UniProtKB/TrEMBL annotation:
Keyword line: Chromophore, FAD, Flavoprotein, Lyase
Protein name, entry field: Deoxyribodipyrimidine photolyase
Residues covered by the Photolyase/cryptochrome alpha/beta domain: 2-131
Organism this protein belongs to: Lysobacter daejeonensis GH1-9
PROSITE patterns with a match to the protein in the record: PHR_CRY_ALPHA_BETA
Record InterPro entries: Crypto/Photolyase_FAD-like_sf, Crypto/Photolyase_N_sf, Cryptochr/Photolyase_FAD-bd, Cryptochrome/DNA_photolyase_1, DNA_photolyase_N, Rossmann-like_a/b/a_fold
Amino acid sequence: MPIALVWFRNDLRLADNPALRAALDGGYTPLPLYIHAPEEEFPWAPGAASLAWRHQSLAALDADLRQRGTHLRLFHGPSLAILQAVVAASGAEAVFWNRRYEPAIEQRDTGIKQALRAQGLRVESFNGSLMFEPWAVQTKQGGPFKVFTPFWRAASAQWRNEPLWEAPAALAEADTGPAGVPLAALGLLPTPRWDMPFWSDWTPGEAGAHAALEVFIDGALHGYADSRDRPDQVGTSRLSPHLHFGEIAPWRLAAAIQSARSAASAAGVDAWLRELGWREFAHHLLHHFPQSAQHNFNPAFDRFAWANLREETLERWRTGRTGVPIVDAGLRELLATGWMHNRVRMIVGSYLTKHMRAHWLEGARWFWDTLVDADLANNTLGWQWVAGTGADAAPYFRVFNPVTQATRFDPDARYITRWVPELAKLPTALRFAPWTDPAVAARLAPDYPAHPLVDLASGRDAALGAYRTLRASR
Ligand SMILES: Cc1cc2nc3c(=O)[nH]c(=O)nc-3n(C[C@H](O)[C@H](O)[C@H](O)COP(=O)(O)OP(=O)(O)OC[C@H]3O[C@@H](n4cnc5c(N)ncnc54)[C@H](O)[C@@H]3O)c2cc1C
């Protein structure tokens, strides 16, 4: 049988994999491969936590392929040159992959497609990761959306349930072509192995994604509409890294969540599908406004008086030593697990960009390096939203009060105490704002900063002052 390269990227699964399916339907023997080429993603080469996840996920994919009779070949180097070399050595006649939507990757892939087609190969790419590709949803005028609600209304009107495709039971081995390199040679794991504790929380790979879905459907989905904002509970799906790496198709998730709809779960189902909609919207925006990963979506903010912070000040934020308990809890959760609850992402982001007045890119870059679900579309949207610089963003003058947020969403301070155990001896009410009783804090929490890095009231006033100056200068 003729051979087709199946180039795995952010679609590290066998079920619902349109590229793999196209190879099989076309009568080809698939030759599965992965190419590590981080420099081709510049300026957003994958961060350290993301690479560590990818290592685990590639290992899982290889094991799944081996169980079926073939295996994953790994390469390190320029993608086009490697694809051409594998084609030449294997005699492959076709190359199939599932699309990615990051600006650098879109540009690279267009060039690769042209070059390989010019060699006479059959080259096809597919949608493997979105419910609606960025160009599929348009305003009445035929342009992109900038606001979520009308985007999601238009997208929902186009909704159709994609048929599911089960992973093949067996796959023939393409017994030719270069062997590639061992997984360890890709150098995806950090030294020292600070990622080790992550893997008690997470199981990267397709089976892990399906298991996470089951856990969510049997548990948090029912109460999701209320519990999704509670970092002290397991109230969300924790599917984000699985979705980012394409270990499960969004349309399989949507189908499973919809089939769990009952009178009791309806609000949770609708709320969850809407969050999936934000992911779609983020990809829509990044595709149509590729500069937004680097620049303020709202260019007025190019003149904003961002503070020029010292490295050690930023480091106190990054490592969770700001003296604001909910902020520190979130940043420590991130370092310990590679993930942070969405509500707390908003709180730490607001403190950084409003109270500390750091440019949102400082936060976006830190998240990029430390999140296992780091995703250029979602991270860009999240940070521009929080900073008030984005499309459909929270207005700049809406400054989150981290103490009010904590008392509302972590009412017993359980989340705070879990990640900031130095505060455990304080009475609960004081764990949200220990500086309000300095004598008690000094006695019962002596190892915790005595004052917030930036005082909440004056930080807020300074941020609003900078915003007023910006508006006055129009
Ligand atoms: C500053 C900031 C940065 C962020 N960076 C990322 C990032 O790099 N990668 C990432 O996947 N998400 C990011 N998010 C969005 C959100 O925080 C995470 O998707 C969510 O916390 C993942 O947890 P979950 O899977 O349990 O979510 P659930 O609540 O179960 O939601 C289901 C899925 O919907 C999607 N989703 C949920 N909320 C959002 C959102 N606000 N925007 C876009 N998609 C969403 C995710 O794919 C998520 O897995 C960011 C949010 C903020 C405020």
